[in-house]
Every structure is written in structure tokens, then in C-alpha cells.
Specification:
Rossmann fold; 702 residues; alpha/beta; 6-stranded parallel sheet; single chain; 24 helices
């Protein structure tokens, strides 16, 4: 694979610089942790190591450096906090802590991204010290502190830095070597408290920098989150309680659990697994079990409306802003003090190679982060260093692993690109979840079914309830008589079909208008085509007319397929729809559709009405997608709320046994008899029990 070009200086990358007179200790290579299964695997212990003790470096000739404005520590000591201003560089605060290379700490972004804890400000300070023999000698002696310290050693991989004081007991120094001088993966994060206790016992002063506790807390909190979720969800993504929170696939809940356990991660699953929904499910878990309160979602301006539809309109926990305005909105983002930031990257990429926006993101403070890089995010190698620097803010291993395993180096050893994008998931299992469709295909269902309820319009409520009352009276009469003549069966079926037709929009224009708006909303959710099915051609005509009224100024072309049209008309409608060059919306009437066979791999399906026989739903789906070839096809069932149709759905949706075909055919097709008739009457009675009439016209309110 061709290596990506190295990020330019304007993109905040800094080149490692060897300190004069001594070689800096090379960061230990990060070993990839085993991949977390179902989002519940325990993370590895936090990775830290201590550099071996070294003699203070000898004075060296001053390295070349640009003119610098350096403000030394106020107390006149060499070691402490400097303020350094350089031409064409941000003003920075630098803390000189020890005489050893790589132990200075700078506030600039170049330092944060450096592999060896160096930057132009560090180089300028090195030059400033080396030009004066007195300062150089003081640096060689090191800070003359009585007590000992534990601080962070920065770089691509952060480690603990043990700084023994002048009066550090030998036993304590040896204990520090034993506890901290181990491979990063093997170090116990209880080592620091143990050293603190040992120092107290011998009366020695030992201070621990706050950054050390922050670093340790990140790993400890991740382990506690894993343990809590394991106890609450013993079945992991398959736990039934998760479906009550949000109706997602176990595979999607696996991504949500992964995000919560990791704390800061990249969800780069294929689009059919809907990483955005996984991120929102993770928010649900964070809020429910870990007290999360403030979430900031950053997305492209073009995607703001899509996120607005997904986020609860009245939920003040969410703040939604355009990622295009990252720089100008920096103060707003700070004032929001988000605990979780969701970064939905622009589909075209470019976020992490835009110097100003990337810098604003890297300065954005939040405990938790979810980055959604889009379907091509893995392949844009130039974006990975800064993306991962943002996610691995504590430098616990992934950032170093990326540079070590995928870095392309020039002759001087400087990073000039990355290689092997396809291997990134194996290199970064603790922070990256990137599952392709081929990897999970065998675990995916054909359909993603959802029910969308449409409010019963006030204009049709009285007529609906009148038909419902008449049907209830007719059924009660014949149940009491324990006899149903065929002629009266036909009348009863006609009453049922009249109610079902009204719910579909037949001779009910206000119902058709509301269902048309629901169809319009579903069509707007994605760019993929939509096939709408109904048992009543009249309902499709009403829907088409209602859509024309709604879209009067927007030109929404629609194709209709019905058996009453000439074969040439039907074939033309089918060809235009399948080609993708014509309308994105196809209306199909059930009668006579047995021979219809569309081949639209990305087409969605919508049921305008609810068939009595649930088997009809699968037949409709088969008109659009070949058996065994479809995966995760969105299928929407529209239901008129509080209606006879809703009662049919509740009664029959989960019935495993087949239902008589006559109930979904024209009433002229024949009669029910025997067991079929008894079952239908029993089902009808249950539907009527579930179909509760709505409020009267005078008592209704919008």
C-alpha cells in the first residue's frame, strides 16, 4: 500500500530532536491488547515504565535554535516553569524538571504530539541553558530537592518518572525500582500508593504530580465500568434489558458497550451497523449507569438536521454544533463543559488535516470521546496520527502503537507517512472497533422492522368509532346466537374491510395526508429508494394525491405498480425504479402482485396498512429482495394509532400459526368455514377488545 504523505508542520506535527550530549530513552513499544469481545473484556493494566537512572548529561554545544523570548522562574532557580515565546510558534509554558533528556514538559501542541517529549520550545530552552556555563553546570547537578517525586514522562507513550531526592532512603529507592522498573503492561497501578505508604513509614517526603493520578484514574475507571456492566448485563449485548432501552441489534449494542468500556474510542463500523445509533446507545448506558449529564455532538453542517431528528428535542443534556465552526465556537464548547464529545467526521474527510480545526479539537477537554470517522475513515491514513492523538489523550499505548507498527520513516528516522490501513483494527483493539459487512454478515437479520404510529385525525375519529361500534354489535349478536349464516359472514367481512380501508386512507383524505407525511419523513431519512405496499389500490391513489399536495413545490416523482395497468406500463415503472434514474418512490398494490420481482439491493420497504395475515408481510418483502441476499433492510409499518388497524397489529403480529388467506383477499373470494371461521371470530373479538374508541370530538385536543 502506498504510504500516506507526512503531515506538514502547519498540521502540528513535530520532529523528534536528539538532545545534545545524551540519547533519550526510547519509548517502549506498545503491545496490542487482546480485542474486547462484546464490549465487556477487561482492559489491560495501565502501561507505564520508569527510565533507568542515568548520570546527568554533560554540557554540550548550543543547538541551533530561533531567537527566543524566555521568562525564567520567578524564584531564580534553573528548574521550574518558564514562559517561552518563539517566532511563528504559539507562546508556551515549559516546566524543566530534571537534567535528563525527555523530561521537560511543555504546554504546546507540538510537544503533545511528539514521540520523544521534544518541541521547538524545549530546543530553545536547551540552547538558552547551554550558552551559559553556570546554567549548564546547575542543570548537570540537577534539582537539589530533599524529598522524592513521581511525575509523568511524556512522549508517544506516557510512563511514570521516579525522581529520588537527596535524602531518599536506599530501601525506598530499591522498592521504586522494583515496582516501577517493569514493562509498561506489567506495572500494577497500586504501585504508587504502595510507595507513598512506604515513604510515610520511614518519614521521607514523597510527592506525586496530579497528572500521575489522572493517568492512573483513566485506567482504573475503565476497569470499574467493565465490572459494573458485567454485573448489570450478564448476557452482554444479548441482555434483554438493552432492547427495552433502545431497539438495536446485539451487534450494535456490542459497539455501544465497547464505547462505554473504552471511554475514548473510534467507532468505524460499516454503515449498515449504524455507528451513530451505537454512539447514542452508549450515551444511554453512560447516563443510566454512570451519571453522564452533558454531551456535545460535533457534526458537519449538512448532517445537523439528521442529528436533530435522532436527538430528543427536549433533552437539555445534548448540545449540537457544526464541526465547520470548531475554531470560532471554541469558547462556546469550553463553556458547555461536555463530559462526552461525539465527533461525527465529515463524509469527505479533511478534519484532521485542517490545522486550525484539528488544534481546536485537540484542545477540547472531555472525559469521554466517541469518534465516528465514516466509511472511508480507515483508508485516509494521513488523518490517523491526529485522530488517534485526540482519542488517546493520556497516551496509554494506542498512539505509540500506531507510530511504531504503521509508521514510515525517512533516512533520519523521522515519521513521513503510514502504511497498511487494513491492519489498524488489529493494532488498536482497545480504542478502535471497525467491523466490515463481510465480517458480520452471518449474524445479521434480513430486516430491521420498526413500527411508526400515526395519530388518528380528528376528522375521521367519529366515523371510525361508529364503524367500530357497529362491528362490535354485529359480532356480539352472532356470538350470542352461536350461528353465523354465510350471508351475514359476508356482511361482517365487509364491515371489517371498511374499517381497515379507512385506516389505510380509503375515502379518508385526512388519514391519507397524515400517512403521506409519514412516508415523506421515511423517504427523507436516507437517499435509498422506498417501496410502499398496500392492499387497497384506492389507498395508494389517495397517498399519491396527498404527496402531490405536500410536495407541490418540491417535485416528488412517484411510480405506481398495479395489476390493473397494462403490462407495458407496469414494466416501464419497474425498469425506471430499478435503474435508479427515475423516482425513488414506488407504490405497489397487493392484488395481482404475485409475479412482481424487483431487484433493488438498497431499497427499503414500507407497509401503508397492516395485513390480516402476517405472511403477507414476508411476501411483500420478497417482491423487493431475493431470499438470502438481503441484510438489515429497513422495513417500516405505519399504524393509525388508537384504531382497528392497531388492534389487528397487537393481536396478530406475533402469531406463529398461519392465518386464512381469504381474510386479505377481496370479499368476493369466498367463505370461511370450520376451524378457520372459529379462529377468525375469536381473533376478531380480541381485536375489538384491543381497539378502544378515542375521545369524542368535543373532548379531543391537539
Amino acid at each position: 500500500m502506498k504510504a500516506a504523505p507526512a503531515p506538514a508542520k502547519a498540521q502540528m506535527t513535530s520532529k523528534p530532536v536528539k538532545d545534545a550530549g545524551a540519547e533519550p530513552a526510547a519509548p517502549e513499544a506498545a503491545k496490542p491488547a487482546p480485542r474486547a469481545r462484546r464490549g465487556t473484556a477487561k482492559p489491560k493494566p495501565v502501561q507505564k515504565a520508569v527510565p533507568k537512572q542515568a548520570k546527568a548529561p554533560p554540557a554540550a554545544p548550543a543547538p541551533a535554535a530561533p531567537p527566543a523570548d524566555i521568562t525564567a522562574p520567578a524564584d531564580g532557580s534553573l528548574f521550574g516553569r518558564y514562559v517561552i515565546a518563539l517566532p511563528d510558534e504559539e507562546r508556551a509554558e515549559l516546566h524543566l524538571r530534571t537534567p535528563y533528556p525527555g523530561t521537560a514538559l511543555c504546554s504546546c501542541l507540538d510537544f503533545a504530539l511528539s514521540e520523544d517529549a521534544s518541541c521547538p520550545h524545549v530546543q530553545a530552552l536547551d540552547a538558552f541553558i547551554a550558552t551559559d556555563p553556570g546554567r549548564a553546570a546547575a542543570r548537570a547537578r540537577g534539582p537539589q530537592a530533599v524529598g522524592s517525586r513521581i511525575e509523568m514522562l511524556h512522549g508517544a507513550r506516557r510512563r511514570l518518572l521516579w525522581l529520588p531526592g537527596l535524602e531518599c532512603p536506599t530501601a525506598l529507592n530499591e522498592l521504586a525500582d522494583e515496582l516501577l522498573g517493569v514493562p509498561a503492561d506489567a506495572m500494577d497501578d497500586r504501585a504508587v500508593p504502595r510507595l507513598r505508604r512506604a515513604a510515610r513509614e520511614v518519614g521521607h517526603d514523597l510527592s506525586v504530580d496530579e497528572s500521575v493520578w489522572t493517568h492512573l484514574a483513566a485506567a482504573r475507571d475503565a476497569r470499574w465500568r467493565v465490572q459494573r456492566l458485567e454485573s448489570l448485563l450478564p448476557q452482554g449485548p444479548d441482555s434483554p434489558v438493552l432492547q427495552a432501552l433502545r431497539p438495536l441489534l446485539p451487534l450494535q449494542w456490542e459497539g455501544a458497550l465497547f464505547a462505554v468500556c473504552a471511554g475514548r474510542c473510534i467507532l468505524a463500523d460499516c454503515a449498515p451497523l449504524q455507528p451513530e445509533q451505537q454512539a447514542l446507545a452508549a450515551v444511554t448506558l453512560w447516563r443510566r449507569h454512570f451519571g453522564l449529564q452533558r454531551v456535545l455532538v460535533l457534526t458537519a453542517s449538512a448532517a445537523l438536521d439528521r442529528w436533530r431528528r435522532e436527538l430528543p428535542a427536549d433533552d437539555l443534556a445534548f448540545s449540537l454544533t457544526a464541526i465547520d465552526n470548531l475554531v470560532t465556537d471554541a469558547e462556546l464548547h469550553r463553556s458547555l463543559a461536555p463530559e462526552l464529545v461525539i465527533v461525527d467526521e465529515p463524509a469527505e474527510g479533511g478534519l484532521w488535516v485542517d490545522a486550525e480545526r484539528a488544534a481546536a479539537l485537540l484542545r477540547l477537554q472531555a472525559h469521554f470521546v466517541i469518534v465516528l470517522p465514516g466509511s472511508q475513515g480507515l483508508q485516509r491514513l494521513a488523518e490517523w496520527p491526529l485522530r488517534l492523538a485526540f482519542v488517546d489523550t493520556e497516551r496509554r499505548g494506542p498512539y505509540a502503537a500506531l507510530l511504531d507498527s504503521h509508521g514510515v520513516r525517512d533516512d533520519a528516522g523521522q515519521l513521513c507517512g503510514l502504511h497498511d490501513a487494513d491492519d489498524l483494527p488489529a493494532t488498536l483493539p482497545s480504542v478502535l472497533l471497525a467491523r466490515s459487512l463481510d465480517q458480520v454478515r452471518s449474524q445479521l437479520p434480513e430486516r430491521l422492522d420498526r413500527v411508526q404510529r400515526v395519530e388518528m385525525p380528528l376528522a375521521e375519529r367519529d366515523r371510525h368509532d361508529g364503524l367500530l361500534a357497529a362491528l362490535r354489535d354485529s359480532l356480539a349478536f352472532w356470538q350470542a346466537a352461536d350461528w353465523l349464516p354465510d350471508a351475514q359472514q359476508r356482511q361482517l367481512q365487509a364491515q371489517v374491510q371498511a374499517l381497515r380501508g379507512l385506516c389505510a386512507g380509503v375515502d379518508a383524505p385526512t388519514v391519507a395526508q397524515l400517512k403521506a407525511r409519514a412516508v415523506q419523513a421515511v423517504l427523507a431519512e436516507a437517499e435509498t429508494p422506498l417501496v410502499v405496499f398496500s392492499q387497497w389500490p384506492q389507498a395508494l391513489d389517495a397517498l399519491r394525491a396527498a404527496l402531490a399536495d405536500i410536495e407541490a413545490d418540491a417535485d416528488l416523482p412517484v411510480q405506481v405498480w398495479r395489476s390493473s395497468d397494462a403490462l407495458a406500463v407496469r414494466q416501464s415503472a419497474q425498469r425506471q425504479f430499478e435503474s435508479g434514474q427515475g423516482p425513488r418512490l414506488l407504490l405497489v398494490a397487493d392484488p395481482g402482485s404475485a409475479t412482481l420481482s424487483l431487484r433493488c439491493p438498497d431499497a427499503r420497504v414500507l407497509h401503508l396498512d397492516r395485513p390480516w395475515n402476517p405472511g403477507q408481510l414476508q411476501r411483500r418483502f420478497g417482491h423487493v429482495h431475493a431470499p438470502g441476499l438481503a441484510h438489515l433492510v429497513p422495513v417500516t409499518q405505519l399504524l393509525l394509532d388508537g384504531s382497528f388497524e392497531a388492534g389487528v397489529f397487537q393481536c396478530l403480529a406475533e402469531r406463529p400459526e398461519p392465518v386464512c388467506e381469504l381474510l386479505d383477499a377481496d370479499a368476493a373470494d369466498g367463505f370461511l368455514q370450520g376451524a378457520d371461521l372459529r379462529q377468525w371470530l375469536a381473533d376478531l373479538a380480541q381485536v375489538l377488545t384491543l381497539s378502544v374508541p378515542g375521545p369524542s370530538r368535543s373532548g379531543s385536543a391537539h
